[in-house]
Amino acid sequence: MIIRIYFIIFLCSIYISFFGQNSVYETSSFKFLNIATSSRQNYLGKAAIATFEPQIDIALANPALIQFHTRGKILASSAYYFTSLYGNVAYGLNNYKHDIPYVVGANFISYGEQIQTDVDGNVLGKFIPNEISTYIAASKTYKNYNFGTTIKFAYGNYLLASSAGVAMDLSMLYRDEEREVYATLLLKNIGHQFVGRNTQSATLPFDIQLALSKKLKHLPFRLTIMAQEIHNWTSINNSSDYYLFPLDPFVTVKDNDLLTILMSKFVFSGEFTLGKAFRFGASYDVKKSIEGRFDAFRGLQGLALGFGIYTRKYDFGYSYSRLTPISVNHQFTLGINLREIKTK
After folding, report:
1. 53-66 burial by CB neighbour count: b if 16+ within 10 A, else e?
2. Which of 66, 147, 278, 299 has the largest CB neighbor count within 10 A?
3. What is the pLDDT of residues 135-160, one digit of tens each?
4. 2-342 maps to which CATH number?
5. How far lies 151's CA from each of 99, 130, 188, in Å?
6. What secondary structure does DSSP assign to 221-239, as a single string?
7. Which residues of the chain form beta strands (DSSP E)?
8. What are phi and psi of 32, to 5 degrees?
9. Four-residue CA torsion sign, 197, 200, 203, 205
10. pLDDT averaged over the chain?
């Protein structure tokens, strides 16, 4: 019965997403909802949605990834973007009566100190705009399928204006555990920003994502290929020439070329697992590479690298991602297994 209800909601959400959502990502609000909630999710990029492991740091990428093993685990993560500070806290719980593991948490972003001026340029004071969201995410298993749902409430305070909104993620994961192949469909940020104080209503950064991952048989390596914004064919926010291959000075294409549009949909990631204690990996987001470039600079924007150390009691992760040719992002994550600590 629960699975049938989920499918009905899922199909209705797809209909609403195609006909009720604004497909122009750049005009949406609360884009901080798409920031990676952990360092591991950051270095795997959006392709993290197809990595099925019993770790709370990866479960936040896709609610269908949440497992019972996340119970009692708490996660804290922070990232730095120029003058902005991002943070996320999450805790894993289980509902054994209905066989549903779930995670509750909150994340925020502070945009740093800003100067308030009047129309003549006179300084009136300083303020710090910020946005925050709280969420609950849960999953349900049925045979070889996992279904996940995340409900998010977001609020933004911008001194003279404020706004609030509600968003939902819906996902479905198929597991072929014998061949270690996982495929997922994720509908992200289905919802709307409500009219707030001195603001207008707006859509949220909606996205439809597909991903396929495969762990190699004779090598501790998982490869993932992910497609993003498949509902919006022309979603590149740039109009100048760029280097299709970041280090190749001779091959240039236009943003409206078929090859450019097609490649901008893909994110590629790979991760090595050394035992149970150490993981490291990288990802490359073609769309980020295109949108983050400067005409006068070439670079590896869209590239992310990182690692994670996992023990019985504590987890630690770090990631490095390049936003533009001259700017980078660092993210740190700390996880604590409260169940292991309480037993000692």
Report:
1. bbbbbbbbbbbbbb
2. 66
3. 999 999 999 999 999 999 999 998 88
4. 2.40.160
5. 19, 20, 10
6. EEEEEEE--TT-SS-----
7. 73-81, 84-95, 100-110, 114-117, 123-127, 130-142, 145-157, 162-176, 181-197, 202-203, 207-215, 221-227, 242-243, 252-253, 266-274, 278-285, 303-310, 314-324, 327-337
8. -65, -15
9. negative
10. 84
Contacts of 294-301 with CB under 8 Å at 24 or more apart are: 294/324, 294/325, 294/326, 295/240, 295/241, 297/324, 297/325, 297/326, 298/243, 298/246, 298/247, 298/249, 298/325, 299/246, 299/324, 299/325, 299/326, 300/246, 300/247, 301/246, 301/325
Could you tell me whether strands 123-127 and 207-215 are parallel, antiparallel, or unpaired per DSSP bridges? unpaired
Residues 186 and 168 sit within 8 Å (Cβ to Cβ): no
- The answer to whether 293 and 301 are in contact (CB under 8 A) is yes
Cβ(204)–Cβ(165) below 8 Å: yes
**Amino acid at residue number 255:** D
- Alpha-carbon distance 113 to 332, whole Å? 22
Residue in 282, 49, 63 with CA at minimum distance from that of residue 182: 49
Q: Which two tokens stand for residue 247?
A: 């280090």
E strands in 177-217: 181-197, 202-203, 207-215
The SS3 call for residue 176 is: strand
Confidence at residue 198, expressed as pLDDT on a 0 to 100 scale: 75
- For the cut 90, the answer to whether the pLDDT of residue 236 exceeds it is no
Secondary element (H or E) of residue 49: none
Instruction: Select from 322, 205, 298 the least CA-distant residue to 248.
Output: 298
Q: How far is 220 from 279, CA to CA, in rounded Å?
A: 10
8 A C-beta contact, residue 186 and residue 150: no
- Is-contact 187 169, C-beta < 8 A? yes
Among 98, 101, 128, smallest CA distance to 113 is for 128
Element (H, E) at 277: none
Assess whether pLDDT exceeds 80 at residue 19.
no
Cα radius of gyration rounded to whole Å, the chain? 20
- Distance CA(285)–CA(146), nearest Å, equals 26
